[in-house]
Amino acid sequence: MRDMTGFLLFQVVAIPLLIFAAARDIATRLIPDEVSIAIAVAGLIGRVMTAGWADAGLSLLIGVALFLLLLPLAARGLLGGGDVKVMSAMAVGLAPHETWLFIVATVFAGGLLGVAYILGRHVVPQPRLAGQASLLRRVLVVEAWRVRRRGPLPYAVAIAVGGILVLTLLPRA
User: pTM for this structure?
Assistant: First the structure.
């Protein structure tokens, strides 16, 4: 049986950072670069510890290739730059087949997020802020405003769902 300490390290670092990235994307539509850097570094260390330098190098190469493939989408405004960086960083910590499953899970989660936003345009009432509204209430009001004006999706939510699913549900050998 392989040493899974490296994968555990990746899980412990990546899962909270994915949740943070999703929350930050909802609130500001920005993901700090430090999130992607930390995920990539933890992923690379984890891959070296778990699978060795050759497999870690392959994962790093796949992360770079994914970045280069997604970059044109960001340049056209179809995907945020932070989303591209977080997805690429996740690929560094995953085996090639896990990266594929991560992409598929993220795309499905993104589809559900898109449907929720389409339905939200018709369902979400126009909320009002009154006095000392909580942070959560203020974020919900702003998000409802974005939904109604057809603003961009916080795609880091889909990335977080895809990443967390792959990190927690895949069997390890």
Answer: 0.89
